[in-house]
Design brief:
It contains 7 helices and 11 strands. By secondary structure, it is of the alpha/beta class. It has a single domain, classed as 3-Layer(aba) Sandwich (Glycerol-3-phosphate (1)-acyltransferase). The strands form 3 sheets. A 7-stranded mixed sheet has the order 3-9-8-4-7-5-6, sandwiched between helices. Strand 1 and strand 2 form a beta hairpin. Helix 6 crosses helix 7. The longest helix has 18 residues. The N and C termini lie far apart (38 Å).
Length: 248
């Protein structure tokens, strides 16, 4: 689904997937969902503001997949990564964010309106409604952004977290097409005049066969992110489902 207001340049039981799908989720007792008007206005404001602050260069290494459905996996260094990623895709996006960001009422409402989905990465059962909402967005052929490092990592590419990717891959069999996982490299460079150079490279899509392929997919995604942004890997390990680690 394109922006309606103009273009702007098995961990869980199977029963959770058998419940009726919703286009909204409950957050602290209130039903919320993305508002495309608020999303597009916010993206437009970011586009104008960032044109004064950054010299943004976007490179796509391949033609985007024909279907709208995708999981986008960007490098994460600053809060500005979020609006920068939104500028790379014409369709409105959803963003998975840590649940702590949604505690303040005003911020909680705004983040939800611009596509924020709160998730507890360590104990996802606590945010089950949010995960069900994420799944419903994939079934609706929408794009969801997940920062695989799970936090800011500057000067290097951090460890990849495979837990959420594993849960999504377990759901993949219910779709008619495999889910493309699109790695995105973001590199903040030096200043050109008063503007800072930002290079964004979007790599070719990656695919996984099922939940058991989550570690391999995460490994490949982090390698691609490192290549795309030209930053070294912080380590050769990946976080596993139970907090164990697997050497690369």
């Amino acid at each position: 689904m394109s922006c309606p207001y103009g273009r702007i340049s098995r961990a869980f039981p199977l029963t959770i997937f058998e419940q009726p799908e919703k286009d909204e989720f409950s957050l602290f007792g209130r039903a919320v969902r993305r508002n495309n008007f608020v999303y597009c206005i916010t993206r437009r404001i970011a586009q104008i503001a960032f044109s004064f602050l950054y010299r943004i260069e976007i490179e796509r290494e391949t033609i985007p997949p024909s279907q709208n459905l995708a999981i986008i996996l960007p490098k994460h260094q600053y809060w500005t990564d979020i609006p920068l990623v939104s500028l790379c895709f014409h369709d409105p996006l959803h963003f998975v964010a840590k649940k702590e960001l949604f505690r303040a009422p005003g911020i909680r409402s705004y983040l939800s309106l611009v596509g924020g989905i709160p998730l507890d990465r360590e104990r996802s059962i606590r945010t089950l409604n949010s995960f069900k909402y994420l799944i419903s967005r994939l079934k609706a052929d929408e794009k969801v952004v997940i920062f695989p490092e799970g936090t800011y990592v500057r000067g290097a590419v951090g460890l990849g977290k495979s837990r959420l990717i594993q849960m999504i891959l377990q759901f993949q069999s219910e779709l008619k097409d495999p889910i493309p996982f699109i790695p995105v490299g973001i590199r903040y460079g030096g200043r050109v005049g008063w503007r800072r150079r930002v290079e964004i490279r979007i790599g070719p899509p990656l695919f996984g066969d099922g939940g058991s392929d989550a570690l391999s997919l995460t490994r490949r995604a982090m390698e691609e992110i490192s290549r795309l942004c030209g930053l070294p890997r912080a380590g050769g390990e990946f976080e596993m489902k139970q907090g164990q680690k697997c050497g690369s």
